[in-house]
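As the next step, I wrote out a protein sequence along with its fold in token form, included below for the reader:
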Amino acid sequence: FQPSNMMLKFYSFFKQATLGPCNTPRPGFWDPVGRYKWDAWSSLGDMSKEDAMIAYVDEMKKILETMPVTEKVEELLQVIGPFYEIVEDKKHGRGSAVTSDLSSV
């Protein structure tokens, strides 16, 4: 089993955002899924936790923009809409740190 590139991208952004840069040893050859995941996370290097959070939301936004608009999708967009606003503010240098902004959502 090989995780998809999309799954690995989300995994790596999640790990970077929650734990920071990868500083664990690479899993052994007998753990191919672990190696794929480690490689994806390690490839982010010294990306900041905040940048990883922003990248995660950006990737989610790309997926949602390709989905057909249904009642369920509209409900989801209403819930996560504030995250988009925070990410856009951070990209343009406005607002406080993402982590403190997210605590109010």
In short: Residues 97-105 have pLDDT under 50 and may be disordered.
